[in-house]
Amino acid sequence: MVSRSGEGPDEDGQAGDAIEAPFGFPAPLWRALERHRPPGMGLLQRWRSPLRGPWLTSVFGSVLLVGLPVLILTGLLSYIAYGPQFGQAIPHDVGWLKLPTFDWPSRPSWLYRLTQGVHVGLGLIIIPVVLAKLWSVIPRLFAWPPLRSIAQLVERLSLLMLVGGILFELATGVLNIQYDYIFGFSFYTAHYYGAWVFVAGFVIHVLIKLPKMVTGLRSLSFRTVLRTSRADTRPEPPDVDGLVAAYPAPATVSRRGALALVGGGVLFVAVLTAGQTLGGFTRRAALLLPRGRSRGDGPNDFEVNRTAAAAAIRPADTGATWRLAVHGPSGRLLLDRAALEAMPQHTAELPIACVEGWSTTQSWSGVRLRDLAVLAGITTPARAMVRSLERFGGFNHAVLQANQVANPDALLALRVNGVDLSMDHGYPARIIVPALPGVHNTKWVRSIEFGQP
């Protein structure tokens, strides 16, 4: 192979380039910088796969170009669903990063189940594609010198934000799904700001790389790749970005094999996780359920995010002396379980969907929130402040919007699947509102304050 500029191959197996010092650096200084590489740069010579090149990188990139915007959008919608206008979303004070807010719809009842299920599910199944994309460009990540122009500086900064951001978001997201409160910082705050770092890097990187991605996709026929065996797999022509190895090793797998491997990884992760959102018979295949398969007995045998013990709910708090305080223009009303059971009861099949991606649909029975509002002296409440017996925690209260209170299926639930709620599921009473994030379906309710328009 003929080397460029009359130079031989360097220590990482790449042909040498003529040195042009950028940013006004003296050429001798730049040559010295290029000759004295950091430890470990010689490992680049091991990255000799003939599969690497613009086409494979562009295929993985095109998948991420479709999937990542959906991941971003559903994540931001989850933040809005938490009600930042009421101070319920974490973090609340985000300065100029504040999103436009609106009243989160209470119809259809499965809306949050869909958006958050897609967000968490897609975030998990996209991991094999992200890793494959990083593998395809890893020699480029360790190019030395790290930059040669202003344009390359911008590109590498965007790459740092993109790669660092997505790895942080995926790692913290997966850990938060599987474990409770293991971080020494607020997951919600870190995930929100980390998302914006990733979004900025993603947008800049797409603007820089989109033309090259289109060219890369056109460099090989997808049909031809699928028909090419390992024995017939050849490297792509050398490219300006250095993705193609200068001295490639023989192929150990075809490009179609690499695509099948990544696709199989996506399918495997989907099988292990999708059942937590889809439910039904698919739940049996969901081996990575973050809260286990069940939590309770009989009709109460379904997921619990926070137990009564974890919330420090004592039996005396929910015993015969428990009263629900209902506040409104008529003053404060104190209602025991018997009084609530004497009111008109309503039953609705509604899901609970958690920010961690799991959801479950159960049959809930209790008093309509709008009936309690009328009892408090308000026919069209503008909001409702719900407080829990839980003494600590960021979600021991919630503000419900007008449309959520007015929904005919919005309940102060007393029973589930025909029996009383268990302690872990919120006995003696809990909130159930269609399309509301699970954490705002407050358990162990002690008071509801209805606000006027």
Automatic annotation (TrEMBL):
Pfam families, per the entry: Oxidored_molyb
GO molecular function annotation: oxidoreductase activity
Transmembrane regions: 55-82, 118-138, 159-179, 191-208, 258-281
Oxidoreductase molybdopterin-binding domain span: 318-450
Alphabetically ordered keywords of this record: Membrane, Transmembrane, Transmembrane helix
Domain of life: Bacteria
Keyword Cytoplasm: no
Keyword match Transferase: no
Matching Gene3D superfamilies: Oxidoreductase, molybdopterin-binding domain
Listed PANTHER family: BLL0505 PROTEIN, PROTEIN-METHIONINE-SULFOXIDE REDUCTASE
Name this protein carries in UniProt: Oxidoreductase molybdopterin-binding domain-containing protein
